[in-house]
């Protein structure tokens, strides 16, 4: 809310008289001063409630925008900081209520998963590391062909163009590389 924007906003509203323009200018200046003095503390407050910096910043920004829009209805401008704090708390609560509704709705729509062992993530990570180690052990050309084939999902023709080799060479490297991976991984405890 810079003064330049405020002035251009005021001059763009020809129906206002001098009193309305003065009140609007007062609102701009007052909210700017409150913003400078309280923004950081209000964001910290909201972060404690919503546990997300980006969401907290949005909550606080919305509170300042609402205050600016309702400045003329504020009974005691000296209590504006308290009004902002309460608005931030209320809007943070609204965010949390909305999250709860979204999570409950998503849980209802989520299909039930079969019992997954508690260490499934660790096992998957170990499996992934073993596959990557086996892939690193392959000769360079086989590794490149398998990566292009299974990671980028390229066709044999695209792989041949990318590596500058024939389609027959792509088939040969893919076949040998896959066989070497299977042999290496069959010996591993997956």
TrEMBL record:
This is SigE family RNA polymerase sigma factor. The keyword Transcription applies. CDD domains: Sigma70_r4. Gene3D superfamilies: 1.10.1740.10, Winged helix-like DNA-binding domain superfamily/Winged helix DNA-binding domain. Keywords: DNA-binding, Sigma factor, Transcription, Transcription regulation. The keyword Flavoprotein does not apply. NCBIfam families: SigE-fam_strep, sigma70-ECF. Residues 34-99 form the RNA polymerase sigma-70 region domain. It comes from Nocardioides marinquilinus.
């Amino acid at each position: 809310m810079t003064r330049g924007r405020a002035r251009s906003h005021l001059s763009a509203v020809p129906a206002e008289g001098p009193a309305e323009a003065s009140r609007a200018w007062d609102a701009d200046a007052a909210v700017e001063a409150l913003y400078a003095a309280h923004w950081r503390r209000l964001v910290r407050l909201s972060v404690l409630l919503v546990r997300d910096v980006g969401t907290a910043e949005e909550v606080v920004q919305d509170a300042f925008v609402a205050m600016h829009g309702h400045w003329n209805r504020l009974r005691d401008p000296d209590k504006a900081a308290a009004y902002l704090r309460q608005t931030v708390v209320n809007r943070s609560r609204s965010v949390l209520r909305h999250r709860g509704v979204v999570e409950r709705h998503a849980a209802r729509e989520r299909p039930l998963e079969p019992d997954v062992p508690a260490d499934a993530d660790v096992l998957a990570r170990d499996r992934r590391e073993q596959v990557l180690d086996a892939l690193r052990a392959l000769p360079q050309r086989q590794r490149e062909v398998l990566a292009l084939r299974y990671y980028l999902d390229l066709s044999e023709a695209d792989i041949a163009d990318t590596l500058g080799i024939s389609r027959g060479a792509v088939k040969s490297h893919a076949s040998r590389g896959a066989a070497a991976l299977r042999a290496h991984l069959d010996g591993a405890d997956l």
